[in-house]
Sequence to fold (466 residues):
Amino acid sequence: MPAMGSRRTERHRCRECGAEYPKWAGQCSACRHWNTLEPATESDGTALRDTASGPVQLDDPRAAPAARPQPTSLDELDRVLDGGLVPGSVTLLGGAPGIGKSTLMLQLLAAWDGPTLYVAAEESAPQIRDRAQRLDIDRTSIWVHATTSLTSAIEAIEGRAAGRMTDRPSVVVVDSIQTVADPHIGGVAGGVTQVRACAQQLVDVAKASNVAIVLVGHVTKDGNLAGPNTLEHVVDTVLHFEGDHHHSLRQLRASKHRFGSTNELGVFEMTPRGLEPVADPSAVLLADRRHGIPGSVIVPTVEGRRAIVVEVQALTNPTPHGASARRSSQGLDGRRIAMVLAVLERRARVGLGDLDVYASAAGGLAITEPACDLGIAVAVASARLDAPVSSRVAVCGEVGLGGEIRQVGALERRIAEARRLECTRIIVPSTALGPGSGDDVVGVETIGQALAAAGVTDDVHALRAV
Ligand code: TYD
Ligand code: MG
Fold:
């Protein structure tokens, strides 16, 4: 087949994940899908670009750092962005439908110091105006361009659109990248080819016009932004807006950030007046806490530069006859819970057979760091033994398979935050303790010692205060 010969030597791109290859292959080695490689045509705008400037030395002015970030005036957003939005950069904001992406973006534009443009490809201008009214936003400062045409959006960004728009915007929101389409390219809006091509063109526009562009993207059921690898490589920054629909707390995290760290967590609360920054998440997370209930313990966690105290809760209940034991978790890492339960049984003799175990981080904040292990262990043991832990006790430490308590980072910040929230006994890994930690700090070496220090078992002989 003669056509096949040329097809095999052309540049190809995977329809599923966007990975590129110098020649055709049956399987995409990036996403492992079969028969998804197609010839990569220049017209879709995603062909590799030639960088004409040639090599430079690192101290050459041409290698000078990119522009500095401009603060957005939304503190929690600036925290995650490490200062703000960088002119000429493209940020992808992903999140489940209804989580509050459009609300956050409207608030961003309202707070922005400079001309702004909202490319509304999902909602009409009256709908956006309605939302702005509910958010009490001064609507004159924001230009809305309701279009699904990428060409028309780019004209507006570059100040070439017909109409009264006078200033060229310094920040642009495209809501959403899945609903804009380039009429010159095949494929449906929201398909990998369209999404990738549109994002690439917007990246080029951002660079050329030195405008900061934020693309709103819906996450698919498996948590990917418009398909794996599709956009993450194209943009400078990837933000995830998450939260439990039944809670008002929303978390903003970065998984990629070319201009700073990706460690910081931004916390917002969805209120009738829109998203409010939560400067003191610990206070909000502990607000509903009830005292004297077994299965609850305070855990100081660390997110970036900020320590946040959460309440870890557990409940154990006999498994109905004939059913297999349930392990259910919310806001905590299910695999770590399974490991902690196994260690509790084997190393601390807390029997959990024939019991359903539920564990959660109360308040809807997701905590995945291993420093939370010991909190899970103490909460589960407390629930199992029906022995409440004092609300003045805080616990942190990673649990090893041998039942040993391992070091955690940023211990000083955890201790300080626990003290601020009036904890008077802070149980930590003894290996991490230096001299002069304070009388309220108790170092433990094993899970058994931790349970005793927390008052869950009365095996006081195991307790060794430092
Ligand atoms: P929205 O920003 O439209 O979500 P997304 O763009 O991520 O799909 O907001 C979704 C929800 O937020 C909506 O169901 C109503 C709620 N909401 C509030 O609770 N308070 C508000 O001030 C606004 C504007 C929305
Ligand atoms: Mg929306």
